[in-house]
Design goal:
This protein is an all-alpha fold and about 80 residues long. Helices cover about 70% and strands about 0% of the residues. It has a domain at about 1-25. The longest helix is centred in the middle third of the chain and has 29 residues, at about 15-45. The protein is rod-shaped, with a radius of gyration of 28 Å.
């Protein structure tokens, strides 16, 4: 929010043209950085594995197969 206010009032602060370009560039990079950090935090909280009921019968297919082989070898 503060960067948004800064960018809104920056043209009216009386800085020379070359300083304005530098300050706008730094402000833009700051906005990009904070956006990237906030996006990463948002995606980090959303790491829930989505499972679908119509495919649930295949969840342990490999384990059942291995378990069956082990039992047949023990006999």
């Amino acid at each position: 929010m503060f960067l948004g206010i800064w960018v809104a009032i920056l043209p009216y602060l009386g800085f020379p043209h070359s300083w304005k370009n530098i300050l706008f560039t730094i402000s833009g990079l700051g906005i990009i950085y904070f956006s990237f950090i906030l996006y990463g935090e948002y995606k980090g909280k959303e790491k829930q594995v989505k499972t679908f009921d119509n495919f649930s019968e295949n969840n342990n297919f490999g384990e059942k197969e291995k378990g069956g082989e082990e039992k047949s070898e023990e006999k």
